[in-house]
Design goal:
Number of strands: 3
CATH architecture of the largest domain: Up-down Bundle
Distance between the termini: 21 Å
CATH class of the largest domain: Mainly Alpha
CATH topology of the largest domain: Alpha-lytic protease prodomain-like
Strand order of the largest sheet: 1-2-3
Helix content: 55-70%
Length: 311
């Protein structure tokens, strides 16, 4: 029974759509630039360390967005003599850099929060601070959920996914700071402001750690998802007894949105070189049909080299 294969045309177009990724990153840069100015002004006027810390957090968001903008453009460049496998891993590297920026920003927030606890905070214009933090959270929620994450999923962009996660932490922290300021307004306990800032920083560190783990997996050539491997096995197995006797040494890894796949297939010893090459090209094309944006290498071996495990 033949494997049902999805139409790969639209999926391939999405995976290689550098324009979509660039526009999403540009929107992130614009929104972060505006929010930094708003937070800095209100943080200085109100004296809230939590708001100033949020401005620093947005500053790291801006740097992350700029890195993502550069990364998606660089990753979209074709292979060159110095980078024969392309530039797709730039996106994963940028994800690590963004994660480290998140953790560094959290460290600054914790440091400033501790100083405020020691010396005692003093807040003014609390309602203005609450308003700005609420607006910041809503803007970042929209950009993260409606712009960056959809683009990241469509293009499988590690850089945009990291940027989206970065902004989503800003959503949580902005609403957290707004809640802390509201408690200060109701109770008069100004110590809540730096405590809220430190709590925000702990959440940021967790997000940064998860991003580092996710990005380094690709940089270390972790295999592609099991569901994609199953699709490849099914496609190759269709040709047993037809074009090939079997297959083994299936390997696959990911760089950005691109997959690199290689395997050995065994054929009848009587095949001509031309016919064996045609078989390899046919199987490679079938694999690309179910795993778009893939670089596939099929190695031909005689039937006598067939292995039992099919691995």
């Amino acid at each position: 029974m033949a494997t049902e294969r999805p139409d790969a045309g639209d999926r391939y177009a999405d995976l290689t759509n550098t324009g979509l990724k660039t526009r999403a990153a540009a929107i992130s840069i614009a929104s972060n630039s505006l929010l930094i100015v708003l937070k800095l002004v209100v943080g200085i006027v109100s004296g809230s360390i939590a708001i100033i810390s949020e401005a620093l957090h947005s500053g790291s968001d801006l740097v992350a967005a700029i890195i993502a903008f550069y990364a998606v453009r660089k990753a979209g460049q074709p292979p060159d003599p110095s980078h024969r496998y392309g530039h797709e891993k730039v996106e994963n590297l940028s994800g690590v850099i963004e994660a480290l920026l998140i953790i560094a920003a959290a460290g600054v927030i914790i440091y400033e929060g501790v100083l405020k606890i020691i010396h005692g905070p003093h807040l003014d214009h609390i309602w203005l601070g609450i308003a700005v933090m609420t607006v910041s959270g809503l803007v970042n929620l929209f950009v993260s959920k409606r712009v960056l994450y959809p683009a990241a999923r469509r293009t499988q962009s590690a850089a945009l996914e990291a940027d989206a996660a970065h902004l989503l932490t800003d959503v949580y922290t902005s609403f957290g700071v707004a809640g802390g300021l509201l408690i200060v307004k109701i109770t008069g306990w100004e110590i809540v402001d730096p405590i809220a800032a430190i709590a925000v920083a702990v959440l940021i560190i967790r997000t940064g750690y998860l991003l580092v783990v996710q990005s380094t997996r690709v940089l270390l050539d972790q295999t592609i998802p099991e569901e994609e491997l199953e699709l490849i096995r099914a496609v190759v197995a269709e040709h047993r007894g037809d074009l090939i006797w079997g297959y083994h040494k299936l390997r696959a890894r990911q760089a950005g949105s691109r997959r690199h796949i290689d395997l050995h297939v065994t054929v009848d010893e009587t095949l001509t070189v031309a016919k064996a090459h045609e078989t390899a090209e046919h199987i490679a094309a079938d694999i690309r049909d179910v795993v778009p944006n893939a670089d596939v290498l099929v190695h031909i071996e005689p039937r006598s080299h067939e292995r039992e495990d099919g691995s």
